[in-house]
Design goal:
By secondary structure, this protein is α/β, with parallel strands linked by helices. The protein is built from 11 helices and 6 strands. Helix 1 (about 15-25) packs across helix 2 (about 30-45) and helix 2 (about 30-45) crosses helix 3 (about 50-55). The N and C termini lie far apart (about 35 Å).
Length: about 240
């Protein structure tokens, strides 16, 4: 029985559209072009950083962020705030808490993301980032830290994310119940893959209380290896 529900951040809780559009403007690329290249990376299992190299060959990503921060010290830049929450997030997390589930947020994010999420006053008992832990998804160590933070056995944890490679398949390998959210470019594409049979696929976070109250499916016959894509982190910050 699941007792704790753990959520990824980018394109699970946070709509990253504004982040990508700000980047398109920063790089001087039409929004449709940049988003189309990003979608191609998702379809071809390329790291999302490749989209920057494609539209701006030779771009030093970290140096560009540093220049951006210096020029606009008070701006969001590659960050997010409460306006970027998907509309189903707060109702779904509230419903889960009311149903007796613990709620935890843990994703591939830099330390600044924790403060941004905490400022939203979400109904979660804990918020952590990969940079705080020094380990990123899909590494097993990340999911070990998730279990440690949750304080329950892995089989009592559901991990919810929008990607097979970074989220639900490694969570399944860690003994957790994997839930794939069909949202964002990776979520829609990954839901069509055979490996998605290893997860419970949902279209909205509001489905979770009912899904978790039902008998979990037997996914043992559909085990597939995790296919690495070379991408380990969300873009945010």
């Amino acid at each position: 029985m699941v007792r704790t529900v753990v959520f990824d951040v980018g394109e699970t809780l946070i709509d990253e559209s504004r982040i990508w559009l700000r980047w398109a403007e920063r790089l001087g690329v039409p929004p449709l072009t940049f988003l189309g290249v990003l979608g191609g990376c998702a379809a071809l299992d390329l790291p999302h950083r490749d989209a920057f190299e494609m539209v701006r060959p030779g771009l030093d990503f970290e140096a560009e962020i540093a220049r951006w921060e210096e020029a606009d010290p008070d701006g969001l830049r590659t960050g997010f705030d409460a306006d970027d929450l998907y509309p189903d997030v707060r109702p779904a997390l509230t419903a889960l808490r009311a149903a007796g589930f613990d709620v935890v947020i843990a994703g591939n994010q830099p330390p600044e993301a924790r403060a941004a999420l905490e400022a939203m006053d979400l109904p979660a008992s804990a918020i952590r980032t990969s940079d705080e832990w020094g380990v990123q998804k899909p590494e097993p160590g990340f999911f070990a830290r998730v279990a440690e933070l949750s304080g329950v056995a892995p089989e009592e944890i559901a991990y919810v994310g929008d990607r097979l490679d970074n989220d639900v398949l490694p969570a399944a390998e860690a003994g957790m119940r994997p839930i794939l959210l069909r949202r964002g470019p990776w979520g829609y594409l990954h839901a069509l893959r055979p490996e998605a049979a290893r997860a419970t696929v949902i279209g909205s976070l509001t489905e979770l209380p009912e899904v978790l109250a039902a008998e979990p499916p037997d996914l043992s016959e559909s085990r597939q290896p995790v296919r690495p894509t070379g991408h380990s982190g969300d873009l945010s910050f």
